[in-house]
Amino acid sequence: MLLLFVLFAGVTDVAIPFGAPISDADWAVREDASRQIFDAVVLEEIIVMNPNQRQRYRRVRILSESGKDAAELVLPASVKKIQGRVILPNGEERRFNKEDLVEVLAAKQRRRKTRARVLVPPGLTSDCIVELAWTVPVKEYGPWDSLGADAPAGLLFLRGDFHVQKFIAAIPAAIQPFLASSWSGQPEVQQNTKKNRVKLTYRDLPPLDIHPFDNDMLNPDMPYIRFTLMVGEDHLANFTDQWLVGRVNVLNRLAVSSAYVKWVKELKANRPADDFQAMMYVYDALRHRVRSLRLLPEDDPRPEKLTFYTASVDAWIKRAFDLGVANSELIKYLYEVTLKRLKIDYRQIYAGSRFGEPFIPKNLNYMAVMGDPDMFAVQLPDGRWAAIAPHLQENPPGFLPEAYQGVPALAVNPKTKEAEVISLPMLSPNVNTHVHKYKIDVGEDGKVAMKVSEQRNGTYQGSSRRKYQSLAEDARSEEFRRIWERRLPEWEITGASVINGDNISLPMGFQASGQYDMEGLGVRFSLDPFPGALQPLRSPDYWGPDRKGPIVMTGTFNRVDLTKITLPQGWKVLGNPSWQRKNPLGSVSLRVVQEGNLVTVRRDVMLGLAQLPPHAEADLRFFLAWMEEAFQQTLAFGKSS
Amino acid sequence: MVWLRVAMCVSLMCLTVMVGAQDRYQQLPDWAASVLQGVDLSQAPADASVWRLLDETTVKQKDDGRFEQRRRVVQYVTKSRGADRAGVFLIDGNELTTRIKKLRGWHLPRQGKMKKLDRDNVLTLGQSSVQALSRDTSTFAVLQGVARGSIVVFESREFQQSYFPLSYFRVHTGFHTRKRVVRVEGALSLSVEGLDGWDLQADSTATSVELKDIPALEDEVLMPSFGGVYPSIQVRGKGSAAAHLASWDAMARWYLDLFRKRSTGSQATPKALAESAVLEQVTTYFRDKITYRQKYLTPDRGWEPLAAKEVEDKGYGDCKDMVSCLNGRLSNNGQGIYPVMANIVDGPYTTEADLPGPLFNHLIAAFPLEKSLGLPCEVEAGGKRFLLYDPTDKYTRPGYLNGTYRDRKVLICTEEGALWVDVPEAGLEPADLKLNVTGQLDQNMTLQGQLTVAETGDAFSLRALTREGNLRNVTLTMRSLIDMPGVADLSLNSHEIDADGVAHLSFKIVWPSFFRRDQDGFRFPAGITGVDKPRLTASGKSRQNPVSLEARANMIWDLAIQTAVPLTPGSDAASYEGAHHAFTWKAQGGNNLNIHFESVRRRGYYPRTELTAAAGYWDAYRTAFNDFYHTGTLFFAR
After folding, report:
1. Which of B148, B487, B535 sits opposite A624 (nearest CB)?
2. What is the pLDDT of residues B525-542, one digit of tens each?
3. For chain A, which terminus, N or C, has the lower number of CB atoms within 10 Å?
């Protein structure tokens, strides 16, 4: 720490220009749709990182009533040296006073109070320039120090609600900025070796728009700076040395209980010969023996006995096994040590999430994958890798969490500590199959009776377990009934039950029934063939123009809804409601067949790709339009002539 | 004797079970245990997720005027979904004026030992935002591990200093409540308001009000979005501020005096407004120079305005600050305004029939007039003439108020006392939205074309957003107005506000599945006509809440669309005219569709006492609309 301090001690080479005369060029800035300048422009934003403080500066041109929001500022109470002024086009200037920065309570717990300071700029108009400068002291210095209110630790996104004309970040050279590797633009970089400082200048950053299914960290239109302490030239060696040694040591010295030894002995006796089968076998056995805290019954007293952070890790693991409950970290330890004892040739898998920071092998940005391994994997005879996340016990065996599907990962051999880059598979849409089977009876008097059963596989099975596992059996059914009552407020829900709720090895199933009174059929009536069945995917309300980043869908899926409608004698389906559509992303179809008074309807919605290039947006929007159409389509029935 | 031994054993077992339960209750404070001992928990109402057995509030006024409030709550969690809410106890307060002296909690799980509230689980959050700065706080006490079968007990004692010595308690607590008690000690008065039609009996004495078996209110369609419609218990104290609430006249005189002292210091009666040009000037001034912002850092700021000069100097303020600023600007030449207490948006529909109290959420101005200036929002009261004016409303044409004042009364504070006036319908800026769609519909029912919009009177805030320069929100507002699916593209081509204040907007439109397959045809977009109307109550339930029908500016649609496939409308013409709703539909089919649709929504409010009338009205409208919608807005490819 001392060394770092010596390195950083030195004055900044970036001057904060607060109070300088406003140039004509600043006043000349106007709204300009071609440059995406609306409401306000950040003329200049500066961040200077010092060992014990951040210096900040912002100069904003306000161009409309809405643009006044650009002068909003909420700061931690520790903020120092705040200065501000409003300058009007006629040169009139209004400096801010202490009273314009109001200190308010953010939160209080026991006697600990967290306060914030809110700027209420006086004299603000819809045509002015606001200049602000402030300093935030930082106690610790490192990549984990958050730089912006919303930014994860060590991450600085450079685009916001308003156009930024110039953004300067001055960073000590010992902090290694990973500049957005996916960003299509490039900052100007100046290195001041004497002062160990790098100055990055970005120009003309347009405001953010809404792009559904986005991941900012994959967006070539989103510049960001990722800070990390430099750890040497050979990142991979550092990674394996620093992050693995501790873990391997814990595994090696693990003092397990006799109960565990006995349990492993039983497992060994029944171990499938194939490593992949054995890995799944251990997964299922462990989730029966040691339950994740997230899936425990709501009034289970055991979590309190799993006293956290008081014992050493190995004592803690022992206690978890004996109690039969564990958090994710402990489950991963228990799983790994069991794989080891069953002599399964496994790898630890470190991966970046598809929805967060990507792991980019060529950069070896290990910040994206540091920490515990996310999964464990074995190599299949055909060379592919099969991975399992043992702590996500709600998932069926063999299910790869969607965050990790199709991403590069580091596979580390704990025996040799050698790491290699592998690619995790993208699972087929059929893994995430969700089926509704309806039986509907329509009476002559217009009374409708419905029964539905659901099969949920893959991610749908996992999310169902997460939602229902911790509830008592009757509470599960009660909750499921409430869901159907909300979906169909005009129906009377006559039954609702959740099946196999207690047995985690069996698929959790769902059944509901209800009735509805149409108060007569008239000469024609209409009916939703799948009442209460919700779309597999919410169609976003808004899509911004000019998407540049990839489309990151949660996952692929295959949705199948089937219904058998029994009509009163003499009624038939009107028109020809069957149709289908297909494009490179997926397909949607509705098929209606009538035989006698029985009408069979099948609705299929299949999304086959989960990671799409930006130009696939048009196809995706058509796919979603078809999906919405199919889910809103009702059938009409008339009397046979 | 065997039977006797068996009987004794059974009796002893029963006794053990009962004593077991009673013993368990002994872990709780005595007052809570005594509540539970008288209750058979298996008799919890079937529809309750939490059964609140006792909700008791005792209020006492201290010599310094502060209210001391003690609360006791005992509840039983009957369903898992109630657990999270049941485990949280909330005290709304203020950093400067609330002192929490005691806050305790007990959790008795279905099995296991009783646990007390951990002080680490008491969290106070400030309620400030950038737009509304205040010292308001919410204090949460959270009991962990609450689950079905848990018994949850909270007890609190706090001191509150309010601007007026007055507290309101809602009768409905959010949970099915077995016993709700509000008790006062000392010289406080107590009354229950708004019980009519609620099927609740209040057992009232001079010092307490007790109500039993109060159901939890569920969300329903067409619920009121404004205050003052649910029963409440009022507690009134003593003190100088209480005198201001002795009558509406007293309140009006007090406020006028206070307002003038704070605004300019002058109590002089203002000269009448002689010419309407002043309105344009002040509106331009407020639009350009003053930003709306609430800054309530001391308790009096909820009522007391800043000095006019201070508002001018800072360039921001809330409604009363802006009215003060207006008064100050006019005072230079002897003019001025009267403050007017009002309600907008979610405020109650307060009238002179209500007990005087702080029942307003807005302050506007009344210009005194000697004679009519021919402006629409002029009113007469007490033999005097005024023009109502809202300086916070930057985009309504001067001389008018906007539609949020519809059917409301306002209170003009004059030297003589309160003048209650109806906001005249003619004083509301006329507002409607005309929408024209032209374009082509391909084989796949994708529409490509143009949407042109003319908005009169800021009917849907499009004019205000355009003037503010918030063009992205113009597009988003337009999309939500017509419930345009996200998959459709809408891009703003041009925008203009003409001399009459009409906003003209033009959009390019690309709308996949504009007509959607439905039944034996294609469904016209439901965002234009509205979807079929739901029933007032869920199946098998009776209506709980009053019925509120919101007014909306008229929308008039004209569509001229060329289609690749000739389409025949399900209905050539349809119309309906009811007290609160009307619509007209005309459609011509073929390859050149011409469709006209107009819809009207007028305000209606049916309190609990008029639910039968509400159901009668709604059923008639619902039947008429749904009959039209189901087949009338279907188009057939024949």
Report:
1. B487
2. 999 999 999 999 877 789
3. C
Band the pLDDT of B22: cuts 50, 70, 90: low
**Shortest Cα–Cα distance, B291 to chain A (Å):** 7
Residue A136's pLDDT band (cuts 50, 70, 90): confident
User: How close B113 comes to chain A (CA, Å)?
Assistant: 10
What's the CA gap between A514 and A490, in Å, rounded? Answer: 10
Residue B124 and residue A109: Cβ atoms within 8 Å?
A: yes
CA distance A464 to A450: 22
Report for A140-144, A398-402, B619-623: range of highest mean pLDDT: B619-623
Interface of A with B in 9-48 (CB under 8 A): 31, 38-39
Q: Using the structure block, give the residue that is written with the tokens 């849409």.
A: A429
Q: Tokens in use for A420?
A: 């290699």
Render pLDDT for B187-244 as a digit per residue (tens, 0 to 9). 899 999 999 999 999 999 999 999 999 999 989 999 999 999 999 999 999 988 899 9
pLDDT of residue A188: 83
pLDDT at A145: 37
> Which residues, other chains included, contact A358 with Cβ-Cβ below 8 Å and sequence gap of 6+?
A215, A217, A218, A352, A368, A407
DSSP conformation letters of B558-604: EEEEEEEEEEEES-SEEEEE-SSEEEEEEEE-EEEEEEEEEEEE--E
Q: What pLDDT is stored for residue A304 in this prediction? A: 79
CA dist list (Å): B228 to A381, B92, B189, B354: 72, 19, 20, 10
pLDDT value at A13 more than 90: no
What is the amino acid identity at position B89? F
A624 touching chain B per CB within 8 A: yes
Q: Which amino acid appears at position B348 of this protein?
A: P
Entry pTM? 0.88
Residues of B with CB below 8 A from A118's CB?
Answer: 128, 130, 133
Pick from B588, B591, B578: nearest CA to B558: B588
Q: Which DSSP helix (H) or strand (E) runs through A292?
A: strand A291-292
Q: Is A482 on the interface with B (CB under 8 A)?
A: yes
Is residue B172 within 8 A of residue B545, CB to CB? The reply is no
| Residue B5 in contact with partner chain A when CB distance is under 8 A | no
Contact at CB, A66 and B135, closer than 8 angstroms: no
